[in-house]
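Summary for the steering committee. One of the milestones for this cycle was to obtain a three-dimensional model of the protein with iron/sulfur cluster bound, which we needed before selecting residues for the alanine scan. The sequence and ligand used are listed below.
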Amino acid sequence: MTHAARRFLDFCQGTVPVVGRKGAMIRKMLLSALFYGLFLGAGILPGGAPAQDATSTTRDEAAVLAPTRPLAAALFDLDTLPGVVRTDAPVPGWAISQGGETVGHIASTWEVIRSVGYSGRPIDILVALSMDGRIAGAELVRHSEPILTLGLSDQDISRFVGGFAGIDLADPEGRGAGPEMPEIISRATVTTGVIRDSILRTARLLAIGRGLVGGGGIDQLSFEPQSWAELAAIGAVQERSVSLSEARAALTEADPPIPEGDAPFITLWAGLMDPPTIGRNILGEYAYNKAIAELGAGRHLLFVGSQGVYSHRGIDWRRSGVFDRLQLSQNGLVFPLTDAGYTRIDEVAPEDAPPLRERSLFQIGGEGFDPAQPFELTLTASRAGGSGEEVSFDTVLDYQLPAQFVRKPPPEAAPLWHQTWQDSTFAIASVAAMQIALTLILLFQEPLVRRKRQWMYLRIGFLTLTLVYLGWILGGQLSVVQVIAFVQSLLTGFRWETFLIEPVIFILWAGVALGLLFWGRGVFCGWLCPFGALQELTNMIAKRFGVPQIAVPHALHERLWIIKYTLFMAILAVSFYSMTDALILAEVEPFKTAISMRMMRAWPFVAFVLVLLLAGLFIERFYCRYLCPLGAALAIPSKLKIFDWLRRRPQCGRECRLCETKCTVGAIDPLGRINPNECVLCMRCQVILNDPETCPVLKRRARKTAA
Ligand code: SF4
Ligand code: SF4
């Protein structure tokens, strides 16, 4: 092997030659930092913070794609081209109008919720919402999703995305909660899940922002006749009273002093009048309708009535325009009551209302005021003091609009991954059981490798289960596409939900991440990779039928490793430029054809798989040895493994090279050393090493003992 090739391979395998133990330690620390950095960055290990703010989107990706007039017409099923007017707040989008009337709104999922697909790249859907709070239609305008590589047509995608039309946001889980999925799309569960969640979340925010459905605001529609006593009983009108004696005690320096007595110094009533059930009942229909008609955007109506010797209005407001005796505050913010929008009310409507000396209606509100949240109305009472200075005290009336007048926001559709985890309980349990069984096999391998026959049955049984159940039935095939999607998501904003949509893949990856740490890539490649199992089983059958095995000279064998590392690096590098191109390059993986789609694919893909399997009949695990980019990706952190339980003898490589020729993937070099980056942990060499009928060293020992 040339020096340059050797250096490249060393770099890929993490085996850059270093001098002494210090160098080895530094290399291991660097690799550990890289490995943990990736997982911590994604929040996979405790303490990891999601890289939500990180972004590597290009300027093109960051740009928002506006709906064209023909697209708006198509989404709302209009005969003529409508007007499309941009609106930036409170939720960015476009108002769609026809004949001077607004027919609906459109928003971009990328702009509103920064929707990112399985590829880690923006997925942008324009969602159209009609004025009755229903989704009118949706159009996928940009994506880099792997579903393209499944051979989907644009019509398939449009049919799926457009199928969300008709969903009522007040009941997103109800009838018509999602379109029927074409069979081919239903296999791309992550992408369809992201599309569904993006459409529903964006539509919900748009509907709330445009006031098409309730969103934590107050009920301004329903009306029920209520008396003053009934409204007071539910807290719609609240009261605070200060007697003469209490005021006298609070204003001891007032001159003249306030007389003693139980009569009210002031009794204050206050209530929000926006809900018709409160406002119309207290103000009367005419006054209420007039006040509502005059109400500015974002403003609300506060009624204040009082009786007693003290006025809640005073007279200074006529000069200053500010009612200085009253102060409204909420969460530390103060909202002055001014004469702008003030109305003096001559009488209130309920017959059972207390006799009020003063009645005022204020327009209140402003930045930060939420009428659905508690607020305080403070009355400051002041009198001239004996020394000529003014003395004062405060009385606070706490107000909270009763819950029955607060509109609840529409229910949020449960994330799709909740449903997929619930629906996949058996699959999750069975895959977890396979992983636990494999852990036990690896932990207690010593007694197993001493029993050649049991090891063989166990291996054939496990590989068959992996191929048939995990691969063909559950679709549990990991892929290099997931590795690059993960890397991309770290750069564009990691979202757990994206990876949780496929529970089997998620727990497989979780197990592989742990397994890499303990045993290296062999945990997956040797036991849980369905295509690896398919190659090994077909090679076993071939050997049984006497198909000759080709021994690739070690020098050539080593050089061929470069192909898989180069492929992995190329796919990763291209993904930074174009995810679509990277996914096309990732078609070098036969997994989708052979496992996920069970050979139901166009003939060139099937032919490619058959060629690989045919090569594997003569060179065991041909694809694993030289071509697999996923195997290469898993080999890179394999140096970090903690356990190294594969035994060697001093004679291995010197006196005997049997294991080297029998190794499943050619991971043993002519000197008898096991390359941890290549080893798939099949334990075949350990069985040979412990078999007194096969291992020449044991045979010689036996002969000596017998002699
Ligand atoms: S090298 Fe690739 S094909 Fe082979 S077992 Fe590993 S992941 Fe599967
Ligand atoms: S035979 Fe030994 S060295 Fe080769 S893959 Fe299996 S366990 Fe690893």
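Key point for the committee: The longest helix spans residues 20-41.
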